[in-house]
Amino acid sequence: MIYLKSREEINLIKQSGRIIGEIFEKVKGKIKGGITTQELDEWIDSFIRKKGAQSAFKGYRGYPKCCCISVNEEVVHGIPSSRVIKEGDIVSIDVGVKLDGYIADAARTFPVGKISKEKARLMSVTEQALYLGIRQVRVGNRVGDISHAIQTWVEKNGYSVVKVLFGHGVGYFLHEDPVVPNFGKAHRGELLQDGIVLAIEPMVNAGGDKVRVLNNGWTVVTSDGKPSAHFEHTVALVDGKVMILTR
Ligand code: MF3
Ligand code: CO
User: Considering the domain boundaries, does residue 240 fall inside one?
Assistant: First the structure.
């Protein structure tokens, strides 16, 4: 069942989302060769606490850290650790924040210093896929219109979308209905209406769409070892217009 949110509730989700926007602005300067993913997680954790908020990930199904940090061939759910990031890596940071009971969820992929042309193109195609998906959020459209826009764009660019993980409704809980696949047919699925709040999150692989989960039970990696990028925003449909809540 889809929980539609009131204007007031959407503003509260936006307060959580604004914290994530600030995190991404500030963490950018910290993502340099030599830093560990654990250090980034600690900085993000303390920032969230300073804002009087909490991580929506920590403790979720036993997830141990405050955010997910996924490097290169890691698609999503990288667990912050002593892994040292290095120049040329791409680093995806996924953060969920809960403030006053309302959750926002967003992710973005950052370059570490100078990266290859191929990684830069992967990042830009993925970010554009997100915005093409967001553009489909209007009254009368369906979830499938978002999915289709993302898949078409990604495949046109020679990349593949991950098929076993999805975007989702969000707000009261981290994962609510509906699921928002990054592939599918236009004009299919749930109708989008005022008050719907969605986390749209294309996960795009430079190579094939096959993935596997590491022994830690969380981290999803590409089967072919090629890099993957991830961009996510929480958005809402308000008065017939899409509003991005995580910046
Ligand atoms: N943003 C991701 C998602 O929407 C991460 C959640 S998994 C967690 O599925 F365990 F880290 F919370
Ligand atoms: Co999400």
Answer: yes
Which tens digit of pLDDT belongs to each residue from 39-65?
999 999 999 999 999 999 999 999 999
CA triple 145-2-79, angle to 5 deg: 80
Convert the pLDDT of each residue in 215-244 to its tens digit.
Answer: 999 999 999 999 999 999 999 999 999 999
Pocket test for ligand 1, best of 45, 67, 68, 230 (most atoms within 8 A of CB): 68
User: CATH number, domain at 105?
Assistant: 3.90.230.10
- Mean pLDDT value of segment 26-34: 98
Integer Cα distance of 160 and 40 in angstroms = 29
Composition of the chain by helix, strand, coil, percent to 5: 30, 30, 40
Answer whether residue 187 is part of any domain.
yes
Its domain, for residue 115, covers 7-244
Question: Is residue 34 assigned to a domain?
Answer: yes
Q: What is the pLDDT of residue 198?
A: 99
Q: How many domains does the chain have?
A: 1
Q: What percent of the chain has pLDDT over 90?
A: 100
In a domain, 126, yes or no: yes
4: left (phi over 0), alpha (psi -120 to 50) or beta: beta
**Nearest atom, ligand 1, residue 67 CA:** 11
Query: Rounded to the nearest whole angstrom, what is the distance from the C-alpha of residue 159 to the centroid of ligand 1?
Result: 23
Encode pLDDT of 66-101 as tens digits: 999 999 999 999 999 999 999 999 999 999 999 999
Asked if residues 103 and 172 have their Cβ atoms less than 8 Å apart, the reply is: yes
CA of 127 to the centre of ligand 2 (A): 15
Torsion angle of the four alpha carbons 167, 173, 174, 179, in this order, in degrees rounded to the nearest 10: -20
